[in-house]
Amino acid sequence: MPKGHQFNASILREYDIRGIVGETLSAADAEAIGKAFATKTARMRNKTAPKIAVGRDGRMSSPEMEAALVAGIKSTGATAVRVGTGPTPMLYYAAAELRVDAGIMVTGSHNPPTHNGFKMVIGGKPVYGEMIRDIGTMAKEGDFATGAGGEETNDVREAYTKKLVSALGGADISKLKIGWDAGNGAAGEIMVALTKALPGTHKLLFEKIDGTFPNHHPDPTEPENLHDLQELVAKEKLDLGIAFDGDGDRIGAVDAKGRIIWGDQLLAILGRDVLSKHPGATIIADVKASQALFDEIAKMGGKPLMWKTGHSLIKVKMAETKSPLAGEMSGHIFFADEYYGFDDALYAAVRLLRAVARSGKSLTELRDALPTLINTPEIRIPCPDDKKFAIVSDLANELKKEGAEFNDVDGIRIKKDGGWWLLRASNTQAVLVARAEAPNEKVLAGLKADLKQRLSRHGVAFAA
C-alpha cells in the first residue's frame, strides 16, 4: 500500500482546508491534498487523467503551496491547468469556462498573513463537509492514483475581466464616482483592469497584491478595515465605496455618507434589480440576515428563503431552488442570474453599480429607503467543540416545550417581542455564534437578557 499522510485534524474544515503555515499546514500537506483531490476528481468524473484548474492568492506562502499542490496532482496522472495569481472567483470562472473537471484555489481567504488553505470545486459543485473528510481519509490511507500527469498554463485574466464588465448589462454608470479598496489582497490586479474598462470615475486604494497586508487586514465585515475607504469617499466626495476581502469572494460597501452597507442590505438593493427580471423568484439569505431583508424581498414580490450559513451550503440550495440571487451577512453574494451561481465580489460590485444606476437613485437614497432596525454584531461565545451542538439542541428542545415560535434550519432563530435572537454552533471554530435584532433598544436588551439567562443554565456565560 502507498505511504499515507496524516493531516493536523484542525485543518479539515467544513467548507475548505485551512491552517497556519509552518504550524498546522505545510508544503507536504499541499502535495498530499493534490494527490487526494486529483484522485477523488478522477473517480467522481470517471476519468483516469482529469484536468484540474489551479489558482493561488498573493500570500507569501502561496507559491510554495501551489508548486507542491501541482506536484501532487501530476503524480496521479492528472493535468494541472495553472491560471496564476488572482481572486478565488477567477479560479471558479476558469473551472466553469475551461474544459476541466475540477478547480482548486490556494488561498488563506480573509485570515491573517500566516494562514493559508484550499477551496475546491468538482464538476462545478463545491467540495465541503463529508467530501473534505474523505480527502483526509484518502491521504491517511495513501489511497492515491498514480501516473505521469502534466501541466498547462492558461491566463484567464482578460477573459474574466471582460465577463465582469458585461455585468453592467448596458446600465449607464458614467456619472458615478466610486472608491475601490482591494486591501492588498488577490483581487487587486483584476480590480485595476476592471476599473480601467468601466465608465465613471474611479479612485483606488491598496491595489498592489502584497501578502503581508501592510495597510489593513482584508476583511470588509470588520468596520475598522473600512476606515481608509470611508476617508477616501469623504475626501473625494464619491458616491460610494467598494471593498474586497483577501481572496475577492466577499464584498463590503459604504455610501456617500460613509455608512457601511451590510451584506443583507446589499442583498435587498440587488434583489430589487434581479426581481424586476425574475418576478416571484426565490432569493436566499442566511439565518444571520435581518428580518427587514426577508420582509423587503416579499414586499417586492419575491420568495424569501432563510437558509444555513456557509457559502457551500448556499450554493447547493441555490441550484436546488433555481434561485437567481443569494447572500450572506459575511459579504458572500451569489449570482445565478447571468452568471454561474458562485460567490464573486468583483461581479457583485458591478451588479451593485448597475442596480444603483437603474434605480435612478444614489446608494445613499437606496440605503435610506430600507427599514431601520437595531441589531447586535455577531457575538462569538467560546464553547468547546464537543459541547456546542448539544447546547443548541438542548435549547431547541426547551423552546419546543414552551411552544415558542422559532426556525431551526441552522441553530435556533426565535421570534420574540417584535424582534429575534439567533444562536448557532460555528462549523469552523469552538464558539457559539449569537445575534439579535429588535425595533428598539428596550426590546433588544430584553432579547439579549433572555438568551444570556438560557445559556447560563447550561454553564455558558457571555457579556451581553
TrEMBL record:
PROSITE patterns: PGM_PMM (PS00710). The keyword Phosphoprotein applies. Pfam families: PGM_PMM_I, PGM_PMM_II, PGM_PMM_III, PGM_PMM_IV. Residues 378-451 form the Alpha-D-phosphohexomutase C-terminal domain. Residues 12-144, 159-258, 262-371 form the Alpha-D-phosphohexomutase alpha/beta/alpha domain. InterPro entries: A-D-PHexomutase_a/b/a-I, A-D-PHexomutase_a/b/a-I/II/III, A-D-PHexomutase_a/b/a-II, A-D-PHexomutase_a/b/a-III, A-D-PHexomutase_C, A-D-PHexomutase_C_sf, A-D-PHexomutase_CS, Alpha-D-phosphohexomutase_SF. Keywords: Isomerase, Magnesium, Metal-binding, Phosphoprotein. Its cofactor is Mg(2+). The keyword Metal-binding applies. CDD domains: PMM_PGM (cd03089). Belongs to the phosphohexose mutase family. PANTHER family: PHOSPHOMANNOMUTASE, PHOSPHOMANNOMUTASE_PHOSPHOGLUCOMUTASE. This is Phosphomannomutase/phosphoglucomutase. It comes from Dongia sedimenti. The lineage of its organism: Bacteria, Pseudomonadati, Pseudomonadota, Alphaproteobacteria, Rhodospirillales.
